Amino acid sequence: MRLENKVALITGAGSGIGRATAELFAKEGAKVIVADYNAESGQLTVRSIKDNGGQAGFVQADVSKASEAERMVKATIDSYGRLDMLHNNAGIFVTPTPAHELTEDVWDRVFDINIKGVWLGCKYAVPELIKAGGGAIVNTASMAGLRARPYTSAYCAAKGAVVMLTKTLAIELAPYNIRVNCICPGAVNTPLIHQLGITQEQAAGQVLADQPIARYARPEEIAQAVLYLASDAESSYVTGHALRIDGGQWAGVTTGLRR
User: Fold this and answer.
1) From CA 242, how far away is CA 86, in angstroms rounded?
2) What is the pairing mode between strands 85-88 and 135-140?
C-alpha cells in the first residue's frame, strides 16, 4: 500500500473528487480526516471508508474561516498524532454570469472558499508537516485556472490564484521536505455540475464540445492523480507542478475531428 501509516487531511471530502480521494487514500493505507461543511455528506464518506476496512474521522469545517481551518488541523493531530498530507479540495462554482453583472457578495464567496480556503489550510497544516519531517500538499485548481471561459471570471481568477499559490509554496517549503502541487481537472461529473440547475446534457454541450475525449471524467480518475502527487514513492521529485487531467483540452482544438 502506497500510503501505509500516513495521515491525510482532505477538505471538501463529502462528495465528488474529495470523497473519491478519501476512499482511495484509505484503501492505500492512510488514516484520513474527512473535512466538509456538510456534516451528513462527510459522515457518509467516513462510513464508506470504515465499511471497507479503512480508518477515518470527520470534522465539520468552513475552510474560509481561519478558526475552523485551524480546528480541522488540530482535530487531525488529536485523532492521529501527526499530519503527512493535505489535500485542499473544497471549492464552489457559481452560475455563469458576465463579470459586470456579478455581485460583490458572489465574488467574495468564490474567493473566500476557492483560494482563501486553500491558503488557510496550508497556513495551519504546514507547521504540522514540518514537525512530521516533511510531507505533501495537493491543491485542487482547475483547467479554468489555466484556460479562461466566458462568464466565469471569479472562478477562473480564483483557480488561477490556486496555481500561483501552489508554485510559490513549492519554492518556500522545499527546504522543509514538503512538496506542493495542484491538479487542474477539466470536466468532472460531480455535484457541482448539478448545483447549477442545468442538465448534464446541457453542460456537456457547453463544456465538452472542444474536448478530444468527449466525456466527463469520473471523480475516481482525478483521485488517482491526487494519489500520485501525494505519494513520496511515485512523485518524490515533483513539486510546483499544475497537473492537467483534462481529456485533451490543452492539446488543441477539435475542429474537423471525426467522432
Assistant:
1) 16
2) parallel
The residues facing 33 across adjacent strands are: 9, 57
Q: Judge contact between 163 and 145, C-beta under 8 A.
A: yes
Amino acid at 41: S
Mark 67-82 as b/e (b = at least 16 C-beta within 10 Å).
ebbbbbbebbbebbeb
1 burial type by CB count under 10 A (0-12 exposed, 13-18 middle, 19+ buried): exposed
Residue 227 to residue 157: CA distance in whole angstroms? 26
- Using one digit for the tens of pLDDT, what is the confidence trace for 193-231? 555 555 666 666 666 777 899 889 999 999 999 999 999
Q: Give the type of residue at 174.
A: A
What one-character-per-residue DSSP string does 70-87 give?
Answer: HHHHHHHHHHHS---EEE
Q: What angle do CA 214, 15, 165 make, to 5 degrees?
A: 80
Which residues carry out catalysis? 155
In the numeric block, which cell numbers belong to residue 121?
A: 489550510
Q: What is the pTM of this model?
A: 0.94
pLDDT in tens, 8-47: 999 999 999 999 999 999 999 999 999 999 999 999 999 9
Q: What are phi and psi of 64, to 5 degrees?
A: -80, -5
Tell me the residue type at 189: N
What ranges make up the beta strands (E) of 29-159?
31-36, 55-60, 85-88, 135-140
In the block, which residue shows the cell 480541522? 72
Which long-range contacts link 203-209 to residues 24+ away (Cβ below 8 Å)? 208/247, 209/254
Domains in the chain with CATH codes: 7-244 (3.40.50.720)
Helix axes 117-131, 66-80, angle to 10 degrees: 30
